[in-house]
Design goal:
single chain, alpha/beta, seven-stranded mixed beta sheet, four-stranded antiparallel beta sheet
Length: 425
């Protein structure tokens, strides 16, 4: 499609957008009494209006049923998480028995590493990407310390080539093959939080398995954003947060995936708790752990249904829409945003360098942009003028045009505000 940097053209794209009506399903903050242009859904998604009803339902059941709500609420609390199995499995490309919801993201990654990072004297190394999200880096270091090993001898980072912003798939494969028989685990972010690069998860997973390692993925920036086929890719495990592209609220519950090939392996350790115990015998208070068959067997504690309620509201919205429709708009609106940046670049002295891959197969709903010739003052201008975006040192802004609630006219308006912010300084 040939784009145009005009309001009329942006409005035309909105009129053709089957998802445009969902914009009204969300609450938008306001700046200067105007609805903001919201580019930080890769950090915290907007609140769906339907969320309140899901929370109120639990509050009413708690008020009217108290403890009996576990069994007699309209959505009984004791199996509340089972309502996620079908919609979540569709979002991440899994079987319903391979997904569950519990805890928060880094907690779940730690728990999954109990099962899938089992270092021996000969096989003990972990491969991750350079500049992984800090929480992952801290997790790796503390896990290695826990096993009495030295992080500098265990953690192997795949680095970017000099002068490049993204990591090449062939370099990941080469590093896996180089570490070879010493490799215990590959654990990488499916989408790099800083650059927005989408990794070739299928190819990397196959390479890790070929040398005998487990392969897991941190899908914080991928779930609800990119096409995933975790079961078919033979991924061992994965976890993701729900508050970015799936709009479940700040710090909310995490989803987990454990491939079915591991479900019946009695030699695979896990930290156990009573909510992962055989559901039919859970309240018999038996002394020996009998795990539920499936990812639910990795649950530990009674689940916080008040936190799960907003997530359920979200996954049911995703089920209405379908990932294919979301991805189609995602690709178009991200391409339009890139076009707008290019057009504004021609009209100002500064220059913009998009460090997210240009290949649509290697990017999703994020463009990370170097603002050459500009500094923090431009970011501050954007924020004061109703563009909610994200600043990363030294001079990068991350822009996430989330297809559920961002419009093409937002992209046009952003370009005009960006231009004014540069010309008026």
């Amino acid at each position: 499609m040939i784009f145009e940097n005009t309001r009329a053209f942006a409005q035309q794209l909105d009129s053709q957008d089957s998802l445009h009506k969902y914009r009204d399903e969300f609450y938008f903050p306001k700046v200067n009494d105007k609805q903001v242009i919201y580019f930080t859904g890769n950090s915290l998604g907007l609140q769906p209006k339907r969320t309140k009803a899901y929370i109120d339902e639990i509050m009413d059941d708690w008020a009217n049923l108290a403890v009996e709500g576990h069994f007699y609420a309209e959505k009984p609390w004791w199996d509340y998480q089972e309502r996620f199995a079908n919609p979540l499995s569709t979002i991440v490309g899994a079987k319903p028995t391979e997904v569950t919801v519990m805890n928060t993201l880094t907690v779940n990654l730690h728990l999954l590493m109990v099962s899938f990072y089992r270092p021996t004297t000969s096989r003990f190394k972990i491969i991750c990407e350079e500049k992984a999200f800090p929480s992952d880096q801290y997790m790796f270091q503390s896990q290695v310390d826990f096993h009495g090993l030295k992080p500098e001898e265990v953690i192997v980072e795949v680095k970017r080539r000099d002068g490049e912003h993204n990591i090449r798939t062939e370099d990941v494969i080469a590093k896996i093959n180089e570490v070879g028989d010493e490799l215990a685990l590959v654990l990488i972010g499916g989408v790099n939080y800083y650059t927005g690069q989408v990794f070739d998860m299928e190819t990397i997973t196959a390479a890790g398995h070929k040398v005998g390692a487990y392969v897991g993925w941190d899908l914080a920036h991928a779930a609800g954003n990119v096409k995933l086929e975790l079961h078919n890719w033979n991924v061992d495990f994965a976890a993701w947060c729900s508050y970015k592209y799936m709009n479940s609220g700040p710090g909310n519950a995490s989803g987990c995936f454990v491939h079915e090939k591991h479900h019946n392996n009695p030699e695979l350790p896990r930290f156990a708790g009573w909510w992962g115990h055989n559901k039919e015998r859970r309240f018999k208070m038996e002394p020996n752990f009998d795990p539920i068959q499936g990812a639910d067997g990795w649950q530990i504690s009674n689940l916080p249904v008040l936190s799960l309620a907003p997530y359920l509201a979200s996954v049911e919205m995703f089920a209405e829409i379908g990932m294919e429709v979301l991805i189609e708009k995602r690709d178009r609106i991200t391409a339009y945003l890139a076009f707008i940046l290019g057009e504004i670049d021609k009209e100002v002295d500064s220059s913009f360098e998009i460090i997210t891959p240009l290949n649509p197969a290697e990017r999703a709903s994020q463009l990370s942009v170097f603002l050459h010739g500009e500094g923090r003052s431009l970011f501050d201008y954007l924020m004061k003028n109703g563009v909610i975006t994200d600043w990363r040192e030294p001079n990068v802004i991350r822009l996430a045009p989330v297809p559920l609630y961002c419009s093409f006219e937002d992209m046009y308006n952003f370009g005009q505000i960006l231009k004014r912010g540069i010309l008026e300084k």
